[in-house]
Specification:
mainly alpha, 75% helix
């Protein structure tokens, strides 16, 4: 007996991939800004701008994948056995959004640069792990690696 052919993911995958790439670029920009010289008088402003860009990219990611025609609903429809994992991935969105807002508060406040950097790196790592779990789910459902740009 042959293996069943996985369903085609459709447009939701392409849209999710685009949002994923934008999020990756925002993560990289935030990391570069956090790693810049904190003695620079513009450090907080620069980091704040990049964190706002990160927030926007993350919000776009969430809107794209959680939407009615988004990838998470498509995954549950096409691979219902992954529903618990999809729901867990979706649940991470609110925590990550709160973490990004917390970073913006630290930058606007009087937190020490070392504390800000630690929090930024922890949050960026959490986002990277979230992206990896998403890629793993897509692969499990469709045997497609969303991490590639082809």
């Amino acid at each position: 007996m042959s293996e069943p052919i996985p369903p085609e993911p459709g447009e939701a995958l392409g849209a999710a991939r685009e949002a994923r790439n934008m999020l990756k670029a925002a993560v990289s920009a935030a990391e570069v800004a956090a790693a810049s010289a904190a003695a620079d008088p513009n450090w907080r402003d620069s980091l704040g701008r990049e964190l706002m860009g990160l927030r926007d990219a993350f919000d776009d990611h969430v809107e794209e994948v959680e939407g009615e025609d988004g990838l998470l609903n498509q995954l549950i429809e096409d691979a219902p056995q992954l529903a618990n994992q999809v729901n867990a991935l979706e649940a991470e969105h609110s925590d990550l959004s709160r973490r990004i807002e917390h970073l913006l508060g630290l930058v606007r406040g009087q937190a020490e640069p070392a504390e800000i950097r630690d929090e930024v790196l922890d949050t960026l790592l959490a986002i990277a792990r979230h992206r990896q779990r998403g890629a793993d789910l897509v692969y499990q459902a469709y045997t497609i690696d969303i991490g590639t740009s082809d």
